[in-house]
Design a protein that fits this description.
single chain, 59 residues, mainly alpha
Length: 59
C-alpha cells in the first residue's frame, strides 16, 4: 500500500469520526431533547442518518 493511500484512508477515518462526534454533540446540546420520543439516542440517530444520507435503524 502506498503512503498516499494509507494517509488518505487515515484522513477519511478521522473525518468520519469527527462527523460522528458532531452529531453526538448536537444530540446532547439540543435543549429540546428529552421526554418520550425525543431522547438523545433518537436525536443522534436522526442527525446521523441525515448526515449519511441513509436510514439507520434504532436498536
Amino acid at each position: 500500500m502506498s503512503h498516499s493511500i494509507k494517509y488518505r484512508n487515515m484522513r477519511d477515518t478521522i473525518v468520519e469520526a469527527g462527523e460522528y462526534l458532531e452529531v453526538v454533540y448536537d444530540g446532547i446540546a439540543d435543549s429540546g431533547v428529552g421526554g418520550k420520543g425525543n431522547t438523545i439516542k433518537e436525536k443522534f440517530i436522526e442527525n446521523y442518518s441525515k448526515k449519511k444520507g441513509k436510514a439507520v435503524a434504532i436498536t
